[in-house]
Automatic annotation (TrEMBL):
Homohexamer; trimer of dimers. Keywords: Carbohydrate metabolism, Glycosidase, Hydrolase, Signal. SMART domains: Alpha-L-AF_C. This is non-reducing end alpha-L-arabinofuranosidase. Coiled coil: none annotated. It comes from the Bacteria. Belongs to the glycosyl hydrolase 51 family. The keyword Membrane does not apply. SUPFAM superfamilies: (Trans)glycosidases (SSF51445), Glycosyl hydrolase domain (SSF51011). InterPro entries: Alpha-L-AF_C (IPR010720), ASD1_cat (IPR055235), GH (IPR017853), Glyco_hydro_b (IPR013780). Residues 299-489 form the Alpha-L-arabinofuranosidase C-terminal domain. It comes from Pedobacter quisquiliarum. It catalyses: Hydrolysis of terminal non-reducing alpha-L-arabinofuranoside residues in alpha-L-arabinosides.
Amino acid sequence: AQQQVSIDLNTNDAKHVISKHIYGHFAEHLGRCIYDGFWVDPALNVPKKDRIRLDIVDALKKINIPNLRWPGGCFADEYHWRDGIGPRAQRPKMVNTNWGGVVEDNSFGTHEFLELCGLLGAEPYIAGNVGSGTVEEMAKWVEYLNFDGVSPLANLRKENGKAEPWKVSFWGVGNENWGCGGNMTAEFYADQYRRYATYARNYPGAPLKKIAGGANSWDTNWTDVLMKKIPLNEMWGISLHYYTIPTGNWTTKGSSTDFGEAQYFSTLKNGLAMDSLVRAHSAIMDKYDPTKKVALVVDEWGIWTDVIPGTNPGFLYQQNSMRDAVIAGSTLNIFNNHSDRVKVASLAQTVNVLQALILTEKEKMLLTPTYHVFDLFKVHMEAKQIPLKFSSPGYKVGNETVPAINASASIDAKGAVHITLVNVDAKQKISINTALNGLKWSKVTGRIVTSAKFTDHNSFDNPNKITARTFTGAKKSGNQLVAELPPLSVVELELK
Ligand code: AHR
């Protein structure tokens, strides 16, 4: 029998603004994300500004990319920013110890990254080095970036061709300091944070949003210690990293394109756990910060599979299938529904690494199913979240069940309501019936990302197999919205 879901939505319940920064991205000096991704060989025959690839820039502008996190990741705690400024020919070449032991030639540094952010119209989110850097080094980077006056670092920036400061705002005080960022205890890191953050100054007109390096997935003790030991007014946010491993096992994570329904299902279970994870960390934060002044910043998330066979294991290059689209849509719905606490998030990573939006092969470029999901969801940016009430039927595989449907909704400044829905069920279509209270509307339009198989993906030979298409399966019936969601689908509806 056809599954039915009744959803209750009342626009008068809309309260929290969905921060556009939930839709942020991450670009590390890892594999082919920066080098041979954003930043290409001068001889490559693609549109470029300097060595920045403009077809990538254009694609990201279309989804209104709000911010870009850089230079890592693990790379950040071994990055010394002075290596990446000044004449390129004189910048040191060194080894990227974290990612494949390849040569890092430092041709992409501070100026190049901020030029890229300018082209994208995205806010920079820089992660400073705590693990192997010094307080002075971080303090001087901030001065170089943000001080508009006379000082040795502001003068050096001017000598390097940038008269005005960039006024960078999002500032990560280290990354994964429980692991690659220094193997610290939570107590030790909290004290380090206080020192580093003291000297990362707020220059006139350039206040920093300082973000503490947060927990690894379920380590709620890390969050607890940071919330307890760091004065809340010295920390704008606290981060959280969580990756969806298809098998749940870091040694054999599973293939990005070759998997069956059991592994599709375990990926879903692991991906949907983001909801409980955000709840768990938010509950700890609520104890110390009931008015939610400190943001939860999920600045690394996404599916992490085994690499494509034959590629450098340190490059983390994987394909992106309809399964990735389902996880992306579900995760973004989760973030929207926690918009009271989650204010920034960054998918890992933008180009050619992990759950990428964009894959490239020499001159060729393709947009992944995940990219198209971000395109659907951009309507929620800075709109007010509307809580939804419904009970989802289950999607059952073996003896286990997950909710087949997840959704979120918002109302924008012009009064248009947007609902995004994901049907994770690989076989069943599901009808929804929505009671809309508080809203006068006359018309529904929609877009959909779907494909017959969860392993379907875009290849360089067939780059548009999965894209965002017009959705015609929704209609108005009285004041009810009625829609039929195909299996494996991510749908965005607009009601006006
Ligand atoms: O995104 C890849 C890596 O995953 C990042 O460098 C690190 O922060 C995390 O462990």
